[in-house]
């Protein structure tokens, strides 16, 4: 399975959220990662997002279950 994505490093305003992902109209995804994080933390956030993408989590509804599975 191949996933098309792009990464944008941005400043998240709240300090509580450090990554986000959004589907694009063309079927690709844009991954937003907090640019104030260390390189290692950015990598961890990226890998976390990829678990969600490979798990088809955008098609699921139970957020608690999704996060529980992603952290295993």
Features:
single chain; 72 residues; alpha+beta; three-stranded mixed beta sheet; 2 helices; 24% strand
Task: Write a short abstract of this structure.
The chain has one domain (5-70). The chain contains two helices and three strands, in the order βββαα. The chain has helices at residues 39-54, 63-70; strands at residues 5-10, 19-23, 29-34.
Structure description:
There is one protein chain. By secondary structure, this protein is an alpha+beta fold. The chain has one domain (5-70). Helix content is 33%, strand content 24%. The chain has two helices and three strands. The protein has helices at residues 39-54, 63-70; strands spanning 5-10, 19-23, 29-34. A three-stranded mixed β-sheet has the order 1-3-2, covered by helices on one side. A hairpin with a 5-residue loop joins strand 2 (19-23) and strand 3. The chain is globular, with a radius of gyration of 12 Å. The model has no long low-confidence stretch (mean pLDDT 85).
